Amino acid sequence: MHVKILCILPNLQNRRNATTRDVGSLKYIAKLDVELTTEERNLLRIGCKNVMGARRESWRTLSSIEERERAKGNEGDAKRIEEYRRKVESELTSICNDIIQLIDDHLLPSTSLCESCVFYHRMKGDYFQVSSRTQRLASRWRRLLQRR
Fold it and tell me: What superfamily in CATH does domain 3-143 come from?
């Protein structure tokens, strides 16, 4: 595998791990089943957005590298990158499902404010959309690779 690729992969992984740690404490607070303040809700939303953003950036980078390696005829490298890309896809779907479950199991039941309910339902809808889009892109990517 080329040195460039070997340098990119750990960098992507470090970014993903850092943002995941940040959201962990917010998820812990949400599981206490207490009503979150507006500031806490916004921190949770931004933290989740950052976690997803890092994964989505990783997915786009890996897809681009994989396509380049296949174009060069480096099937071995492309296969390794494909495995890692699929892992990131799986993480994206898993994170979306975790966020939706957190909202359903802890955040919505512990809120009494209409504003909070609307906030959580909108956030839930956003993550259903991200999950759906991720699965569509992954499916489209696999079909594209099969044609080659």
Answer: 14-3-3 domain (1.20.190.20)
